[in-house]
Amino acid sequence: MTPRLDWSARFASAGSNAMRDDYERILVPRLFVPWAQLLADQLELTVGESVLDVACGPGTVARVVAQRVGPAGRVVGVDFSPAMLAVARDKPPVAGGAPIEYRQAAADKLPLPDGDVDVVTCQHGLQFFTDRAAALAEMRRVLRRGGRLGVAVWCSIAECPPFDALADGVADVLGNEIATVYRGGPWGLPDADELMSLVDNAGFTDLTVARYELPLVFEGGAAQLVDTLSAAAVAQNVAALDPVGRQQLVDATARAAAPLLDGHIVRSTAAAHIVLARA
Fold first, then answer.
1. Quick one: which of 233, 220, 262, 101 has its CA closest to 167?
2. Helix, coil or strand: residue 173
3. CB neighbours of 83 closer than 8 A, spacing ≥ 6?
4. Facing residues of 25 across strands?
5. SS3 211
6. Which of 102, 120, 263, 266 would be a feasible disulfide site paired with 218, CB 3.0-4.6 Å?
């Protein structure tokens, strides 16, 4: 398997508890909610619009945009991970927001008719797709003429220093091969030109790309960073560690993250590209 497929397989097979306990508890509020808000800002959503969120995960972007488009709007979230969708569906309705419908489907086979929505979003999902071109073609298909696309993709792992430090810790304890799998997932599409080319080749117009950087804090330090690995492609390797081995992983991550530490707190940033386009 390639790192991309390793990560996709992990999302497909993970239990809802793993996604709820660490992905939802740690990563969503610290990482994904701020980026969802930024993506929604860039799209300038208006009340009453219909939005499709592709690779919706536990509903982070879907819930932010539901608030923006209001009760007269419509939001559909699509993901191929049953665990992610279970977490999303367990959440209460968004107060004062649009209803959200969650559907299980692959990104290259979206379960919507042609020209069905005003806006399509895809936050930190495109890099995982087996067929990125087909997924983008589907996003264009379901957009009405003139509809808007917003895609966020992480820059290189070096531009997301806490995770770069975590990868170094993984390499130190579990070896370079496992660390390569970790590095090759979320940070697997870091080049802005390649990203723009993919969107352009899918037939979108009025393309723009911009790099953004947001603060990222793990108040639980290196141990909290290690906890996020339960939702990663290397989860089984980490779970196989005994308590001594896990502590070695925490210690190795802390050493790698030393330039980021404020006491035991990890304070840093994460960078991503956001592409905007029209159908």
1. 233
2. helix
3. 11, 14, 15, 16, 18, 19
4. none
5. strand
6. 266
* Cα dihedral sign, 127-132-136-139: negative
Across 19-163, where does the E strand assignment appear? 50-54, 74-79, 100-104, 117-123, 143-154
Tokens of residue 250, six digits:
């925490």
* 139: helix, strand or coil: helix
Distance CA 93, CA 89 (A): 9
Using alpha carbons, select from 121, 17, 143, 127 the residue that is nearest to residue 59. 121
DSSP 53: E
| CB within 8 Å of 52: residues ≥ 6 apart | 75, 76, 77, 78, 110, 112, 116, 117, 119, 120, 121, 139, 142
- Residue 157 sits at the vertex; the CA angle it makes with 154 and 161, to the nearest 5 degrees, is 110
Judge contact between 205 and 194, C-beta under 8 A.
Answer: no
Q: Is 146 left (phi over 0), alpha (psi -120 to 50) or beta?
A: left
Q: Which residues of the chain have pLDDT under 50?
A: 1
Q: What is the pLDDT of residues 232-262, one digit of tens each?
A: 999 999 999 999 999 999 999 999 999 999 9
Q: Are 84 and 12 in contact (CB under 8 A)?
A: no
In the prediction, which pLDDT does 149 show? 98
Tokens 């619009």 map to which residue?
Answer: 49
CB 43 within 8 A of CB 222: no
